[in-house]
Amino acid sequence: MGKKFELKESLINRSININQLLVQAEEDFKNKIVSKNEYLDGGSIEYIYENFRIIKMNSLNGNKNLYIMPIEFDINDI
């Protein structure tokens, strides 16, 4: 809605949940705000923002976790 919030605080005070976060990340990709990588490991997705990454794992080995990590790291660091 054109507003920016600190991710950490938004998750802590529950003004956003994980599903909303992923919906927003997909919307940010469609609006060319972030880049996105999709992996053939079962369907993992990585959204790359300026200062951080959001990685939603869906790997064949059973990893279904969500990671929010500094930009210096990538999916290979998990």
Number of self-contained structural domains:
1
What sequence of helices (H) and strands (E) makes up the elements? HHEEEE
- How much of the sequence lies in strands comes to 15-25%
Which class do the helix and strand fractions yield? alpha+beta
Number of helical stretches of at least 4 residues: 2
State the shape: globular
Largest sheet: 4 strands, antiparallel
Give the beta-strand count. 4
Amount of helix: 10-25%
The low-confidence runs, each spanning 5 or more residues with pLDDT under 50, are none
How far is the N terminus from the C terminus?
Answer: 32 Å
Order the strands across the largest sheet as they lie in space. 1-2-3-4
Q: Which radius of gyration do the C-alpha atoms yield?
A: 13 Å
Mean of the pLDDT scores?
90
